[in-house]
Amino acid sequence: MSSGIGARGPREIPGPARSPRGVLALLAVATATGSTGLAAGGTAGALLGAELAGTGAAAGLPVALLVVGSAGGAVLVSAEAGRGRRGRGLAAGYLIGAAGAIVVILAAVARSFPLLLAGSVVLGVANSSVFMARYAALAVRRAEGGGLALGAVFVGTAAGAVLSPLLLGPGGALAEAAGLPGLTGLYLVAVVAFGLAALMFAAASIPRFPVLGRAAPALTGPVTEPPPVARVLGGLRSHRARTALVTLAAANFVMVAFMSVAPVHMMSGGQGLEPIGVIVALHVAGMFAPSPISGHLVDRLGAHAVLTLGWVLLLAVSLTGLLVSAHGTFTMAIHLLVLGVGWNCGIVAGSALLAAAVPDGLRPHAEGAGEVAMQLAAMLGAPVASLITAAAGYPAYSLVGACLSLGALLYCHRSRRTE
Predict the structure, then answer these.
(1) Which pairs count as long-range contacts for 221-224, CB under 8 Å and 24+ apart, including other chains?
(2) In the 3-class helix/strand/coil scheme, how is 176-190 assigned residue by residue?
(3) Of 153, 233, 350, 364, which sits with the fewest C-beta atoms within 10 Å of its C-beta?
(4) DSSP characters for 290-326?
(5) pLDDT (tens digit, 9 = 90+) per residue, 306-361?
């Protein structure tokens, strides 16, 4: 049996005026706008945490609390989607995240590490909106095109997310010109990006709103009572659902853990903010730009084949981390680029597999479970990687990543054989 999206895929948007391509383009543009603020927490957060705490061992704490907020945001967005208000949930997540960015800016001005941690939690809610927009894409296309639809929205994510770390240097200069600490520059960008995305998704949820309202059928639906928790858990017990959840969680653990320590690792090797920003941008390009290809492969070959490719790449990245030098700009760029591609294969295939594994009525709640699993894994991965790297160096965590990647690869292979 194929492990692609399956015959129970999401409904297609009705109506000749609402072509799937046009709606996907609207979703991609809105997501691109919001994802421009992504690097604030993931890149600037690690650097600001190390600076305010006075030790690289603390770099992972803001990232860890960022994903706590992302997990909470996933619950918010999936609950609203279950009530037929997906667009409103996405807009609310972005608006809350913009408020969190303002709190972090205040923390940097006050030199308050605890306030930075609190702001990071609130900021993380917006991250869930960035990533959970991919499930709106599955509401646009039928089963046979669901992987490609995911890829289309992820390309939009790539556009903003690649730009985001490139603004580390220019944003820092702008912040300093305004009398703010340099590392708050990306947070200023996040306030604007998240605020605009909130407005776009709110408008897109109104059917009569010009142009943007064409996406309303993908972002709204009939109000239904939430299913019992036991029914949701029962829907997640199948082999395919468990494989999807393991993939989403483990792939995010490996990627977030590496990226919570890589910027600090490069800075300790003498790299400046602009080279670090370029390298992180290449990594983010690897995370999202291959999505049309990985989505197409999911539709043609099935999700399990793409999962296997992702874990092979993540295993290779972890093994090369044993040897890569913080001084080598080119080798670090390739190392983190492949990390992003491996993550992309796992997340695109895992998301498609999860959507196919449960009935339509449970899908929004399964989506939330998958996102929470991702964020809880990242919450654990970021501080673990920071502590291991601070105590024993970058290669030590790379060995942990290799063991986890190999274990996940074997689990996914075994799960496919038991279906």
Answers:
(1) 221/84, 221/86, 222/84, 223/83, 223/84, 223/85, 224/82, 224/83, 224/84, 224/361
(2) HHCCCCHHHHHHHHH
(3) 233
(4) THHHHHHHHHHH-HHHHHHHHHHHHHHHHHHTTT--T
(5) 999 999 999 999 998 888 766 667 888 898 999 999 999 999 999 888 888 877 67
